[in-house]
Design goal:
With 92 residues, this protein is α/β, with parallel strands linked by helices. Helix content is 42%, strand content 16%.
Length: 92
């Protein structure tokens, strides 16, 4: 993502679909540790991350990351269909 941001000249909004996720293969404390490391990452402009949860596992994972988000300039939200997520990301 930092490489893409440098090419664009700004941090982009992100759509996570969790395509191909078949289960949770990590300890939830790893998500906490990741969130603490990401807190130090400076995002130069406000961005949004939409996460589309189509299974209970996806919903759990997406909700976990939204609850652990400590990054300023990053707004995260969980959606249950991609169309709604894209509408939210397309804000003007």
């Amino acid at each position: 993502m930092p490489h893409i941001g440098r090419m664009l000249g700004r941090a982009p909004d992100v759509l996570h679909t969790f395509d191909g996720v078949t289960g949770l293969g990590f300890d939830p404390t790893a998500a906490y540790e990741y969130s603490m490391r990401q807190k130090a990452v400076a995002i130069p402009n406000p961005i949004r991350a939409a996460m589309v949860a189509t299974t209970k596992e996806n919903e759990y994972l997406a909700t976990l990351f939204t609850k652990l988000n400590r990054v300023s300039n990053l707004e995260m939200r969980v959606f249950f269909d991609e169309a709604s997520a894209r509408i939210w990301l397309a804000r003007q």
